[in-house]
């Protein structure tokens, strides 16, 4: 305060009345009050029309967010020059007045004077304003003006445009700007490294960093290191992180607080919390940012106690926490078991007023969704007054991940009507919902949206499209998209291999797997799960067994429960049930429900009640609330004519008050979904549907069809009711498809449970007598019925 008073006193009484003296004291002012007093002195001593002091004062007023005062000063100046105009544009843009900044820029462009026309600094200052508005059209207009004005090769403007395009999700345009610039400096490359990381293109971000390190580009600086660390952290690439760590030490950046903070985040996200704590301890003067990084590090490693302890220490020292502190404290990475903690954090956020900050409300929405507390998630979302794109994404993703696909689609449509443009995260979430629903027409509409927004170059969007088309039955379109992607990552390969497996195209999946190995793309556990799944669904027993062995022997991956389940399924398909049981008994640890349920399903196919009894006892113990296992075991007994055994199992389920999942089948006709249940008469065309069924039954019987009396006993929970009414939902959907489409049109249906034996047999006959291809996706796989034959080979 003494220093501040000295400045004020000197400005009022003792400083020489010269321009340089005023410029000196303007730069040293530390409060808005001092600036206003200096302004009065300038007016008193005749500097009203002095361009240098007016420019300096305007700039400093913006530093203190005195936007109205700065604007008044600018507009009172008789003849502003370009430099003063740039100060105005920059000040408005940096003080959350982007529209005013763009208006000021437009007035500058309209000036006839050559001296007042925009220069490279003007454009570099106004571009961030366009980014703040979130309006890509304004940015594209500015880009055109830059090129016409001859500034297309300016690195300062180029960096601003790259940052602009990244912030608006147009990473394709950012890349284009970067690639077309003839020269590159460190600022430009750092902007690219940081931007690619922010839009989840981590490998490309690291690629530019590596080229800079190798000398193919500008020299690495401290900002480069800070920019690349988040990409390494998100990939959980500890080795790369350690390389960057060594580089920071070599180049003398190691002691920089931002570098140490970035390293704390890196080691935390890679699971090395010990190194993170050590680095945190080396920060001499810890600021809130570094403390936030450590809190988030503890939280993501499920060390909630240490996270809360550091948070309390911050509060006790009087440090004012910010939204990033709260976000770091919320255990979104390991939410299970932390509902009470989440409620407490939510309460603190409300009390402190930080719940109104978008980052906090979005994080709360995310964790509630992951805890399957969807009512709390939606309430938090609805109560947020400032819904950002991230907020919408969190809620849409939450619905999709919890199987509430219709709610996800509905919210996405609401978002569209609110004129909020989606980004790649939104698109991948809604494509996931389309894939779960089997909503091909909606997925195709989203594909059109992707093209119009130029998102098709984003690898995650392209991969989600492949997954959507595969799960909606369009495996050919999925492969076409796969082949069109120039730089595939392992997720892309996995999605295509998995898609082939879902459709029972095991040989194609194997061929693609070997191509992936040859391409040098890193394999993952998901890769092996996808290819084992494909082998189990295509009867490739020897191939599947060999791949399982090579996973550990050649690639060093320890199998998880799902890998073991695939091997059990492979052995079960071959009828090697005792061998499958011996395999299970040799699994380290306790085999989980996926493994035993797979064995039980194989027992149903091969009617092995002895092995089934062992498997069912394990399942009743591990998951006693799952009605499906009781139904399946009862069916196995019934198929073996052991009706007392079947009755006993159903009686046990009844005593436990277990309920069955209701079955339904969806079909899309002319882009409109129609859902049928067993014995459904609610559809407006029910009479025509049932008449078509009668006609089909007659033709099928002529072709040799006999109803499967045990149809409802094939691992399908809701079929008891369907057996009572004699009309299954699959048949209703197919009949409706036949009367609603032109002859020769492919029929596609989607069943939420496994298709029953009778419907499977009936679908084969219907495909033959109607000369139609019928594609059915059930809870397990795709079935393609054509000319009386199913692609699954009658094993599903």
UniProtKB/TrEMBL annotation:
Q: Which GO terms describe its molecular function?
A: RNA binding; zinc ion binding
Q: Tell me the ranges holding the PPR repeats.
A: 185-219, 287-321, 388-422, 489-523, 524-559
Superkingdom of this entry's organism?
Answer: Eukaryota
Pfam families, A to Z: DYW_deaminase, E_motif, Eplus_motif, PPR, PPR_2
UniProt-listed InterPro entries:
DYW_dom, E2_motif, E_motif, PPR_At4g14850-like_plant, PPR_rpt, TPR-like_helical_dom_sf
Domain (DYW) spans 704-796
Keyword entries, A-Z: Repeat
> Its family?
Belongs to the PPR family. PCMP-H subfamily.
- The name under which this protein is listed is DYW domain-containing protein
Q: Which organism is it from?
A: Linum tenue
């Amino acid at each position: 305060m003494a220093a501040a008073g000295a400045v004020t006193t000197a400005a009022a009484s003792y400083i020489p009345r010269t321009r340089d003296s005023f410029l000196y004291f303007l730069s040293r002012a530390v409060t808005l009050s001092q600036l206003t007093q200096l302004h009065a002195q300038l007016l008193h001593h005749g500097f009203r029309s002095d361009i240098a002091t007016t420019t300096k004062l305007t700039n400093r007023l913006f530093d203190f967010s005195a936007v109205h005062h700065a604007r008044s000063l600018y507009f009172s100046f008789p003849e502003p020059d370009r430099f003063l105009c740039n100060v105005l544009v920059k000040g408005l843009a940096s003080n959350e007045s982007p529209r005013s900044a763009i208006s000021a820029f437009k007035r500058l462009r309209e000036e006839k004077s050559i001296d007042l026309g925009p220069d490279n600094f003007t454009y570099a200052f106004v571009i961030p304003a366009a980014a703040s508005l979130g309006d890509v059209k304004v940015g594209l207009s500015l880009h055109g003006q830059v090129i016409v004005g001859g500034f297309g090769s300016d690195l300062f403007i180029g960096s601003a445009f790259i940052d602009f395009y990244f912030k608006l999700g147009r990473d394709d345009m950012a890349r284009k700007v970067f690639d077309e610039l003839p020269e590159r400096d460190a600022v430009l490359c750092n902007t690219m490294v940081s931007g690619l990381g922010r839009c989840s293109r981590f490998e490309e971000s690291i690629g530019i960093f590596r080229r800079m390190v190798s000398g193919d580009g500008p020299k690495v600086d401290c900002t480069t290191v800070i920019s690349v660390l988040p990409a390494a952290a998100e990939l959980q690439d500890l080795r790369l992180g350690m390389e960057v760590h060594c580089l920071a030490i070599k180049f003398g950046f190691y002691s920089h607080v931002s570098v140490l903070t970035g390293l704390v985040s890196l080691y935390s996200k890679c699971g090395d919390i010990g190194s993170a704590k050590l680095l945190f301890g080396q920060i001499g003067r810890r600021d809130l940012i570094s403390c936030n990084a450590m809190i988030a590090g503890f939280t993501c490693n499920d060390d909630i106690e240490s996270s809360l302890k550091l948070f309390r220490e911050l509060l006790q020292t009087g440090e004012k926490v910010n939204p990033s502190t709260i976000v770091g404290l919320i255990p979104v990475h390991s939410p299970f078991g932390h509902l009470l903690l989440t409620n407490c954090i939510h309460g603190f956020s409300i009390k402190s007023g930080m719940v109104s900050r978008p980052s906090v409300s979005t994080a709360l929405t995310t964790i509630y969704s992951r805890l399957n507390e969807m009512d709390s998630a939606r309430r938090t979302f609805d109560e947020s007054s400032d819904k950002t794109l991230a907020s919408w994404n969190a809620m849409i993703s939450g619905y999709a991940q919890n199987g509430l696909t219709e709610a996800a689609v509905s919210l996405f449509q609401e978002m569209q009507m609110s004129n909020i443009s989606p980004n790649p995260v939104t698109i991948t979430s809604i494509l996931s919902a389309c894939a779960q629903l089997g909503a091909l027409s909606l997925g195709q509409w989203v594909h059109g949206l992707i093209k119009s927004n130029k998102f098709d170059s984003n690898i995650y969007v392209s991969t989600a499209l492949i997954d959507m088309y595969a799960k909606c039955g369009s495996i050919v379109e999925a492969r076409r998209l796969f082949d069109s992607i120039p730089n595939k990552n392992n997720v892309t390969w996995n999605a295509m291999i998995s898609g082939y497996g879902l459709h029972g195209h095991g040989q194609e999946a194997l061929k693609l797997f070997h191509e992936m190995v040859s391409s040098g793309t890193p394999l993952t556990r998901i890769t092996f799960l996808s290819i084992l799944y494909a082998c189990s669904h295509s009867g490739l027993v020897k191939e599947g067994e060999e791949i399982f062995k090579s996973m550990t022997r050649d690639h060093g991956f320890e199998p998880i429960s799902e890998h073991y389940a695939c091997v059990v399924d492979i052995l079960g398909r071959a009828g090697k049930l005792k061998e499958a049981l011996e395999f299970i008994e040799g699994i380290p640890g306790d085999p989980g429900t996926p493994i035993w349920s797979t064995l039980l399903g194989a027992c149903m196919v091969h009617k092995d009640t002895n092995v089934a009894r062992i498997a069912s006892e394990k399942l009743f113990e591990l998951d006693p609330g799952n009605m499906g296992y009781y139904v399946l075991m009862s069916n196995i007994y019934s198929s073996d004519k052991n009706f007392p055994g079947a009755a006993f199992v159903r009686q046990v389920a009844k005593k436990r008050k277990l309920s069955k999942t209701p079955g339904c089948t969806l079909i899309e006709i002319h882009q409109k979904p129609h859902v049928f249940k067993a014995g459904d008469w609610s559809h407006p065309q029910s009479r025509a549907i049932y008449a078509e069924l009668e006609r089909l039954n007659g033709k099928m019987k002529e072709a040799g069809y006999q109803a499967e009396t045990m149809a409802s006993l094939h691992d399908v929970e809701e079929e008891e009711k369907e057996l009572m009414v004699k009309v299954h939902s699959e048949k209703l959907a197919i009949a409706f498809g036949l009367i609603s489409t032109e002859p020769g049109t492919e029929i596609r249906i989607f069943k939420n449970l496994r298709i029953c034996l009778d419907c499977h047999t009936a679908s084969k006959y219907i495909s033959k007598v109607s000369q139609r291809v019928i594609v059915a996706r059930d809870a397990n796989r795709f079935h393609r019925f054509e000319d009386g034959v199913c692609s699954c080979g009658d094993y599903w």
